[in-house]
Design brief:
Layout: E1 3-9, H1 13-16, H2 18-23, H3 28-39, E2 45-51, H4 61-66, E3 69-73, H5 83-95, E4 98-102, H6 109-115, E5 122-134, E6 148-158, E7 168-175, E8 180-189, E9 192-197, H7 210-223
Parallel strand pairs: 1-2, 1-3, 3-4, 4-9
Antiparallel strand pairs: 5-6, 5-7, 7-8, 8-9
Helix pairs in contact: 3-7, 5-6
The structure holds zinc ion.
Zinc ion binds next to loops.
Length: 248
């Protein structure tokens, strides 16, 4: 059994908008799944998908337990995600599940809960050029990426991005209209690693792009539980001092 990877997608735009359906006929999740399948080593991943309209949004306790890294795409229906499921995903992150938050999922309940901030940003969807610059050459998530990824036509996200300071920043974007944006950011919460990756607006074929697919593969490999940050353990008598304390 390979690493358990669950690709979660809201899967609404693809059903309701013909332009989106033309790019992602089987859903954004299916194109992401195919990309990871094509680029990963044989047997490395056990890939599955889950969507909003499935019972429990496809995220049953059994699925969550088997998931080592989850990818999350959402946009128009963040509020329809049940708080109880968000709580369970949050718990799994603290236990060590990696979470890769994609594009408009900056406003998802799970990302905002993990960040503890509003996660606001500036945006404009007119199909302008973007350069996603690598700010940390040598970072595992930038492996195989040259100095920048160039997207001819994309949605703009602009600063200020209402996030806590990233623990590691891997990418920064420049847009044709002049804005910049922290496009690839890493945090740790509990034992879990979180990576936010900006590109991915549904009306552009972003997840078909070979460099974007490479980043997603890298991110999954980076975010897998590595046991390097074990949960602190406390002895039964937590108040017992290490040394005798004078005057006590
Ligand atoms: Zn978008």
């Amino acid at each position: 059994m390979g690493l358990g990877i669950t690709i979660w997608n809201e899967f609404r735009h693809e059903k309701e908008n013909d332009a989106v359906k033309a790019i992602y006929p089987d859903g954004i999740h299916e194109v992401i799944r195919q990309g990871l399948d094509d680029l990963s080593d044989s047997g490395e991943f056990s890939l599955s998908c889950a969507t909003l309209d499935q019972p429990e949004h496809g995220l049953t306790p059994a699925v969550l337990q088997q998931t080592d890294v989850m990818l999350w795409w959402g946009h128009m229906a963040h509020d329809e995600v049940q708080d109880e499921i968000v709580e369970q995903v949050h718990t799994r992150v603290l236990e060590g599940m990696g979470l890769i938050v994609l594009h408009s999922a900056h406003y998802s309940k799970i990302f905002r809960k993990l960040m503890g901030t509003a996660c606001n940003l500036k945006w404009r969807a007119v199909g302008e050029r973007e350069r996603i610059w690598v700010t940390r050459p040598g970072h595992a998530i930038a492996r195989g990426i040259d100095t920048c990824i160039e997207l001819d036509s994309t949605e703009m996200y602009g600063e200020p991005f209402g996030i806590p300071e990233p623990e590691e920043q891997v990418f920064i974007s420049w847009f044709e209209g002049g804005e910049v944006f922290r496009s690839g950011c890493c945090w740790r919460r509990g034992q879990g690693k979180i990576f936010y990756f900006r590109p991915g607006h549904e009306t552009y074929p972003i997840y078909h792009n070979p460099a974007i697919r490479q980043v997603l593969l890298n991110a999954v490999r980076w975010a897998k539980p590595d046991g390097h940050n074990p949960e602190p353990r406390y002895c039964e008598n937590v108040r017992k001092p290490k040394e005798d304390i004078r005057n006590s």
